[in-house]
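Quick one, tokens below:
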């Protein structure tokens, strides 16, 4: 089996920019593209396989009809979604539900996610958590629009990593380029959107009651036990191993040999270029390349100078 290289799906956003073109060389339809859904089987943006025996197949259909490619998993839907986000402007302050609330109220999974900061302009920051001690206090501060009192702001720089479990109030700030690994869900509850308007003069919908319902109170700051192992001049960083996904960074300087640690592996090159070698076959990869390594690929090698963010399904 070959790696499954995937065609990007672009999403226009009010806060989007043009870095998906200037940094990754993608041919964009306009300069307001906020997201590249790099690996997705979500109905709002389904990836298409670009090579091999499944060329032209949509990922959701491949998952449905050829579960053996993924190790015959039990999930009905492909559980992960990988995105690259270009925040030319601030994203809305938002929160996502957990699986129980999402399935009950939206008919889809909840949304736990994590971020690897590909790049960030000086002074960039994110919203990450809140200061309310009770749900009643949270509701009151939202009602009174006490955003500076309610929200926690965290400075960010290139190479930072953040875990954003469901229930976490958060927002990516302007000037940040991020690789996001998340559950396959598109449910977002907006708490605050800076009162901005779209091209037609309309403000975007807020979801105040849902946000109050699903926010974790008091806020929890997850502890990350990040581990790094060296392999010659290259390295493997383990950022997360959770029930939702496991996330790794492969920092390649020359060569890096890898073996599978999950039923299948998702990978996106976020910087540099080189080759992915599988069963003696070499595939050129560069910043922006995304693929899935199917279940029957036991090992592979990366050659070149590149940084890759990879993920496998949760424990």
């Amino acid at each position: 089996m070959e790696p499954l290289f995937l065609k990007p799906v672009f999403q226009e956003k009010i806060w989007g920019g043009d870095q998906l073109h200037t940094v990754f060389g993608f041919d964009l339809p306009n300069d307001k593209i906020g997201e590249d859904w790099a690996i997705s089987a979500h109905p709002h943006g389904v990836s298409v396989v670009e090579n091999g025996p499944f060329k032209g197949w949509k990922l959701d259909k491949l998952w449905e009809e050829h579960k053996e490619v993924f190790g015959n998993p039990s999930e009905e839907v492909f559980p992960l979604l990988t995105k690259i986000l270009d925040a030319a402007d601030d994203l809305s302050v938002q929160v996502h539900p957990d699986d129980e609330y999402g399935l009950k109220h939206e008919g889809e999974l909840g949304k736990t996610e994590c971020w690897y900061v590909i790049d960030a302009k000086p002074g960039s920051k994110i919203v990450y958590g809140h200061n309310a001690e009770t749900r009643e206090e949270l509701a009151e501060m939202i009602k009174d629009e006490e955003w500076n009192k309610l929200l926690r702001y965290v400075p960010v720089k290139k190479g930072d990593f953040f875990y954003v479990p469901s229930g976490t109030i958060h927002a990516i700030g302007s000037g940040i380029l991020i690789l996001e690994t998340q559950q396959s869900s598109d449910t977002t509850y907006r708490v605050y959107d800076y009162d901005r308007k779209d091209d037609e003069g309309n403000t975007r919908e807020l979801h105040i009651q849902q946000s109050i319902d699903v926010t974790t109170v008091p806020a929890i700051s997850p502890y990350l036990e990040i581990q790094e192992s060296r392999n010659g001049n290259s390295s493997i960083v383990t950022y997360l191993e959770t029930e939702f996904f496991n996330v790794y960074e492969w920092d390649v300087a020359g060569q890096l040999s890898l073996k599978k640690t999950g039923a299948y592996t998702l990978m996106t090159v976020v910087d540099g270029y080189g080759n992915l070698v599988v069963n003696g076959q070499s595939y050129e990869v560069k910043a922006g390349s995304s693929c899935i390594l199917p279940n029957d690929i036991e090992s592979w090698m990366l050659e070149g100078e590149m940084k890759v963010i990879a993920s496998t399904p949760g424990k």
